[in-house]
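Lab manual, section 2.4: Encoding a predicted structure.

Procedure: take the sequence of the chain (116 residues), apply the prediction step described in section 2.3, and record the output as structure tokens. A sample record is shown.
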Amino acid sequence: MSTPLRALRVLDLFCCQGGAAMGYHLAGVEVTGIDTAPQPRYPFRFIQTDAIQYVREHGAEFDFIHASPPCQRYSRAQKIQHRDHPDPHSSHPRRTRNDRPPVGHRERGRGPVRAA
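Recorded output:
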């Protein structure tokens, strides 16, 4: 009798309401969402905290890290509407190659979590 494989564990940074997480869930993946704002509609395990701090402390516990940082500052639509958004990543210190967790996917925008 064989032992079933455990589900892959995905860390969903800047998760909002869980759009990306639902796709991972449907693929059979165990998802944990992280966001600084409360996300009462997030359908999976959710932790309200700073994404960068959390990934530094717990990133190695996951098989895959998905990060979709806010990108409004870099959107052409915001410039057309004459809106100015602050750089949400300016408060994070520059990181070195040695303190980066493995990153599997970066959806859009410029963010603090980057593949090397």
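Check your result against the sample. Confidence is low (pLDDT under 50) at residues 105-116.
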